[in-house]
Design a protein that fits this description.
Strand order of the largest sheet: 1-2
Strand content: 5-15%
Mean pLDDT: 80
Helix content: 10-25%
Number of strands: 2
Radius of gyration: 20 Å
Largest sheet: 2 strands, antiparallel
Number of helices: 4
Length: 113
């Protein structure tokens, strides 16, 4: 059976061409002439250069119930730090009692986010 972690070409492609997020998987063609995957770019260069990965949601500074609008954040580097489902899971999760973290009892708890 083939293991994906041993597929170095695939791992390199995903590292250089992809953005993996909880809600999305994005692929962007590169401009590297030596790339064995990407074909030549057919868009005008200025349009291609303006294409970015979709940004993650970022709360507005003055109102945490709203997010920064797409036009303002598109093209900037963001993280999943403000991932709504992750935040909700963290707020609603029950923390385990400290005694459960004794190494013989670690198998008794699984916390999913």
């Amino acid at each position: 059976m083939d293991i994906l972690s041993k597929k170095t070409n695939l791992q390199e492609f995903m590292r250089t061409h992809c953005q993996i997020r909880h809600y999305s998987f994005q692929i962007k063609k590169c401009e590297n002439a030596d790339c064995n995957v990407c074909d030549t770019i057919h868009l005008p260069q200025d349009i291609f250069n303006g294409i970015s990965f979709l940004s993650d949601p970022v709360p507005a500074q003055l109102d945490n119930d709203r997010y920064i609008d797409f036009k303002s954040i598109y093209g900037t580097e963001t993280t999943e730090q403000y991932h709504p489902t992750l935040i909700a899971a963290m707020l609603n999760s029950e923390r385990a009692p400290s005694t459960i973290f004794v190494n013989t009892k670690v198998h008794n708890i699984i916390q999913c986010f």
